[in-house]
Amino acid sequence: MDWNNDKRLDLLTGENSGNVRIYLAGTNGLNAYTTVKAGGFPFAATGGFSMPEVVDWNNDGKKDLLVGNGNGTIHLLLNTGTDANPSFASATTLKVGATTTDLSVGSYGRASPVVVDWNHDGKKDLIVGETYGSLLYFENVGTDAAPKFNQNPVVLTSGSSQISVGYYSRLDVCDWDNDGTPDLLSGYEDYDQVAHGVYYFHVRHPPTIASVAAIAPSVVQGKPITITANGVSDVYGEVGACEFYRDSNGNGIVEPGVDQLLGTGTNAGGGAWSWTGSAGDFPVGSSRVLARAYHVNEWGSAASTTFTVTAPALQGAAGNDAYGVCLDATGQHVQIFENTPMSGPPDYQIACGMFKSLTINGGTGNDRLTVDFTRGNPIAGGSLSFNGGADEDVLTVIQNGSGTISAINAQVTLGGASVGLSNVEKQQIILTSLDVQDSAKCNIGPGGNKVFRTSGLSFGANGVLDLKDNDMIVAPAYDPGAMLDRVFDWIRLGRAGGAWTGKGIVSAAARDDATGFTGLGCALNKKDDTQVKLCETFNGLDVSINDILVKYTWNGDANLDGIVNADDYFRIDRGYISQKGGWYNGDFNYDKVVNADDYFLIDSVFIGQKGPLAGGDGPVVAAAPGQAWAFAKSPPRRPTDGAFDSLFSEAPVAWA
Amino acid sequence: MAEHRFLLSGMPQIDPGVLVQNGGSPLAVEYAYGFTAPCVADWDGDGKKDLLIGQFDQGKISFFRNQGTDAAPVFNQTGFNFLQAAGSTIQTTYG
Question: Using CA atoms, how far apart are residues A264 and A253, in angstroms rounded to an integer?
Fold first, then answer.
């Protein structure tokens, strides 16, 4: 090594005494030695047998000195001079763990350190020889400029055998065969009375990858994507496989179990390995893919690429488009179809849990969206927007078998589309929120056997929600009084003076009821100013005291128990006196005043039915106070029942 | 005895150790009790790595000149070239 930067090789040696000698090269070979000083005094290794190694330990651009000690520890001499004219501070001893314990090769001593980035993590590590001939690897767990070491070194192995040269491994590291790998040389002794030389350990490195590239820097979530590792090579031509990972935590390091294994690539020839899969395995945003290759059984470190994943936004063409959303058979992916049968290969495939939002713009034409809950909730945790356009657009929800449709944590936004939940067989339709935008129409299928529950309900200027002969629960996150006011107003608009042809919340069943005896009632699930619920369950669903109940029932059924009786007259009388307003207080025609018109409605039902409603199609069960309500039968229907005038020009069509 | 930095990846594997050869048999220092301590350097400046080996006996350092190539060193040397300084053979306290 060139100690004084004069372009001549100098010689540094340790010796039995523990001193370190420097033989500087002059014009006629090496000059007489000087002894290295530390802190102004000649340095001597603890226990003698100094084994010096020159290294810029702290990355300050100046050569420092590590010295293996006879007692097995290692001294560090930091250079306080210059690189060309080193001088050293007092020696310190390398530590391990919490820095109170000396790093050591063991009590038999004879540390012989060399410095090399053995695990190729960009930080200098130590390999140290010792009395018993092994090669000890101390991984640097600190930084390159401030190395730190753990307690226990790794005994280097060749294959499965721990390496030993006999006794007294004394190391040097160099690329002996110029293959780009640091090889190891070790002196030795084994007391067999024979003069000895040097062991050479050829070191192989795992394959490297020059670069990784995605087929496009920006991909749509759920679409196929190809990622290629280029320049995959090692000098031995033994690349066995190439793995691709999604860098889940973004730290650039392959961590099986943390990072998602996307798959094993295929050898595309020419040093390229590629993997093709679904961008649905990536969340929306910036994603990084790591690739690594191996030969024999050693993985190389990873190379990576980043790309942007965008959420799918489907834009229909002119004409009639058909979309479908469902889970795949394994429940692992959300499949999205565009003008293809839902049994065929999906256009988009997004890993469950990564589905954030999906916007479908149907464009012109009679567009259809079918959401299939048969195998589970495809929009759990995600939001779905369907902008059907101005035509006869249909959203259909498929639910087969028993169970509850739950789009919990999902939002369904419907703009300009008619929404048919009409082939929903079960009674409970649960959506986190329903936004009926623009001129959208949302129809709950007829049959009187359904309840629609949502926490958020909003309407565009011309939006219509037709409950037909079903009920609804609105469970607002806060301020139920304000929500009740809005629901009341939406029903008022929809009722349109009794014609039930308005915007907002309507009932085609009430509209089609020739007797005019039925309508939608709404009330907070709370008895007057008490903290007592009107009912504990509503159509089989638990309800809180802050829920707003909407019921298709008789006009005059103030307390929504499905029957018009003295209790309801008590309510309207009380409302008439107090003018508190609301259906619960007798405002059955939603005109914000309790007056003779409301008495006319309740009297019509009461008298028209010739007494309390019982039997037939009328409500028959009213729970005693404190009891859960049973599901009430629907009110009578006019003779055309079963030929409901749908708000569609055609009935919702099941997906082909 | 120099800093060794390589830009590679992952954990390396080590082939079984082989003894460096000299003229068809294992290279050896002057006497039994080797306690050898190797150092690789292009000592003669011919562009090829050579071997310097410290030994137990008298703490002398042998220079083995590479007669092959830098990528495939070959040693074919009889006798010993001990490093000298200031006109005499370098000796340290043994070990």
Answer: 17
Which residue in A105, A154, A93, A151 sits closest to A132, CA to CA? A105
How far is the first Cα of chain A from the last one, in angstroms, to the nearest whole number? 80
What would the pLDDT profile of A21-49 be if each residue is shown by its tens digit? 999 999 888 999 999 999 999 998 898 89
Chain B contact for A137 (CB, 8 A cutoff): no
Torsion angle, alpha carbons of A636, A638, A640, A642, to 10: -20
Q: Which has the higher per-residue pLDDT, A150 or A429?
A: A150
pTM passes above 0.90 = no
How many Cα neighbours within 13 Å face the side chain of A18? 17
Contact A196, B9 (CB under 8 A): no
pLDDT in tens, B51-64: 999 888 888 899 99
Residues 43-72 of B with CB under 8 A from A: 43, 45, 49, 51-54, 56, 59, 61, 70-72
Q: Name chain B contacts of A124, Cβ cutoff 8 Å.
A: 5
Please state the rounded mean pLDDT for residues A124-140.
94
pLDDT, one tens digit for every residue, chain B (95 residues): 333 333 344 578 888 899 999 998 998 888 877 788 899 999 898 999 999 998 888 888 999 999 999 999 999 988 888 988 888 888 887 76
Secondary structure E strands in A2-105: 11-14, 20-23, 25-26, 29-30, 34-35, 37-38, 41-42, 51-55, 64-68, 74-77, 92-93, 95-96, 101-102
Token pair 């001079």 in the structure block, residue: A81
Report the percent of chain A where pLDDT is more than 90: 48
The Cα of B69 is separated from the nearest Cα of chain A by a number of Å equal to 9
Contact flag A165-B17 (C-beta cutoff 8 Å): yes
Nearest CA in chain B to A133: B35
- Which residues, 6+ apart, have CB-to-CB distance to A6 below 8 Å? A25, A84
Q: Mean pLDDT across the stretch A352-371? A: 83
CA separation for the pair A114, A53 (Å, rounded): 6
- Residues 29-88 on A with a CB inside 8 Å of B are 29-33, 48-49, 51-56
Q: How far is B30 from chain A (nearest CA, A)?
A: 7
Residue A229's closest CA among A220, A241, A237?
Answer: A241
* ipTM for the assembly: 0.87
**A144 close contact with B: CB closer than 8 A:** no
Asked if the Cβ–Cβ distance from B15 to A173 is below 8 Å, we say no
B38 CB within 8 Å of a chain A CB: yes
Query: With an 8 Å Cβ cutoff, is A11 touching chain B?
Result: yes
A391 touches chain B (CB under 8 A): no
Longest dimension (CA), chain A: 131
A447 CB within 8 Å of a chain B CB:
no
Q: Cα dihedral angle (A653, A650, A429, A360), rounded to 10 degrees?
A: 70
When CB atoms are compared, the residue of B15, B32, B39 closest to A204 is B15
Residue with tokens 């190439």: A242
Find the CB nearest A163 among B14, B40, B52.
B14
